[in-house]
Amino acid sequence: MKTLRYHFTALMVVIVWGTTFVATKMLLYNGLSPKDIFFYRFLLAYVCIWIFGGSRFFRHKEFFAGTFKDEFLLMLMGITGGSLYFVAANTALDMTTASNVALLVCVAPIFTVLLSLPFLKNERLGRYWWQGSLLALAGVAFVVFNGRFVLEINPLGDKLSLLAAFSWALYTILLKRLGSRYSTQFITRKVFFYGLLTLLPLFLFQPLKLDMEVLMQPAVWGNLLYLAIVASLLCFFLWNVTVKRLGAVQTANYIYLSPLVTMIASVIVFDDVITIAAVVGAILILSGVALAKR
To answer: Domain total for the chain?
Structure first.
């Protein structure tokens, strides 16, 4: 019962992250590029975490990690959980189908387990983890293909999707390793900072969109605030806390629920139709996640 609230927290975070598809799609419709969206999202979140953190952030020890090695690992977290993950996943959407990307990114929990074996000796898998994960992954396939089982192969796009999944798994492993040494607030702020810093070189090839007429549209700034404050600032913080308490493997398993949430949000906002295949997928996902925790 003591860990129940952290399972609930992970569920709430994934629900929010599942709806970010809708917010991102709205921003893309209004002319922002994937890199623009990520930059504004993390910049706003970074500014807010300094504001909410108060004056104690200005103490010297709040600027840097205890060792150069830890500072390097925090930078790696900013890349794997920030710039690399979002740029890889969003770029893949321009090269392959959304179904392929959604399915392949959901391989992240399996990558997390594989990485946890050599790096996290204290992580323990449930008795039925593999069976539950494969069942959930099959459910994800039903949801994202939504009854249209046509797999369009694009080698580069699909590789980028797998890179995004691996990147998020590595972020989760690094988070678990550093979580015992630094506060969640400190780690979250560092992730935002290094995510932004490592994105900047990409703007040499495609400049940042600074059109105030576009940025001041309610549909644009409203969705950017939602992505920054709710989906980034709040959810990254809560996700990081949950990984500390439940472990990398258990927390990562909730990612399987994300396509299910996206499907429901798309029905509400874009009037998409729920097919029998999607319902079957939802049942498989929920059953798989429950089985993996036994």
So the answer is: 1
Query: Domain limits at 55?
Result: 4-123+153-258
pLDDT at 58 over 50: no
- Residues 270/255, Cβ–Cβ less than 8 Å: no
CA dihedral 71, 166, 125, 70 (to 10 degrees): 0
Please say whether the beta carbons of 274 and 263 come within 8 A. yes
Element (H, E) at 195: helix 184-199
- Please state, in angstroms and rounded to a whole number, the distance separating the CA atoms of residues 189 and 42: 10
Contacts of 91 by beta carbon, 8 Å cutoff, 6+ apart: 34, 160
d(CA 190, CA 277): 41
| pTM (two decimals) | 0.80
State the Cα–Cα distance between residues 13 and 1, nearest whole angstrom. 19
> Does 162 reside within a domain?
yes
Q: Is 134 among the domain residues?
A: no
The per-residue pLDDT for range 180-236, each reduced to its tens digit, is 888 888 899 999 999 999 999 989 888 888 888 888 899 899 999 999 999 999 999
Tell me whether residue 285 is in a domain.
no
- 86 close to 34: Cβ distance less than 8 angstroms: yes
